[in-house]
Amino acid sequence: MNTLRKQSINDLLKGIETGDPESVRVVDQEQYIQHNPLTKEGDVGLAELFARLAKTNPRVEIIRIFSDGDFVFAHTEYDFSSEKICFEVFRFEGERTVEHWDNLQLKQAPNASGHSMIDGETQVKDQDQTESNRQCINAFVKDVLIERNTNALPDYVAAAGYVEHNPALTDDIKALNTALLDTEADGSPRIHYQQHHRTLADGNFVLSVCEGYREGIHSAFYDLFRLDNGLIIEHWDTVETVPPRADWNNLNGKF
């Protein structure tokens, strides 16, 4: 079932390139809940979106795709009038998807350590450690990202071999420590994780979905971690501004 679900999501996302309305048949339009605030509900909304995007000669590359129970989540690169990196999350009931979330960020140049926003390890392994890895990231998000206890970083992040894909950071976790403690002129955190909404895990990969503020702007934080022997060894992310409610095309909310 998980293999079929991942293939159907692969086909759905690749449908962006062609605008083929058949690709959205995996969507259960009667139950579908759309959490992208700028997209209409149901497969009709997606079909309209795909048809519009197809006119821009889009390119869709699925870098990583995972499953966790009734969820399929993917790490993708899109090029439709602008290049963006995205995390897509779909919830299934049976063979059809009934709920969708995503988080997009404009593609940026490789960071000072030479890593892009999408390169790196793709192989899923250690599936027997899925739950322990999920628990590790839950603790990391609470302890370090929300409570900003950066002294605990060595408890969660590998001391050697760590690979960072955030375009503003490096492989040196001192840069992460500095970024998490950075403040605005009024003393408020520049990056402020406030609420942890969801954790999805597949073996050595774990995705966390959080809400907060970046530079005072309401934002969604999607962070993908690769773990090895219980420690974070690699990290990717996207940060997206949550649009004002007046701009929403559905009332389901970003999260």
Automatic annotation (TrEMBL):
Report the superkingdom from the record: Bacteria
UniProt cross-references to SUPFAM superfamilies, sorted A to Z: NTF2-like
What is the protein name stated in its UniProt record?
SnoaL-like domain-containing protein
Organism per entry? Enterovibrio norvegicus FF-454
Q: What is the lineage of its organism?
A: Bacteria, Pseudomonadati, Pseudomonadota, Gammaproteobacteria, Vibrionales
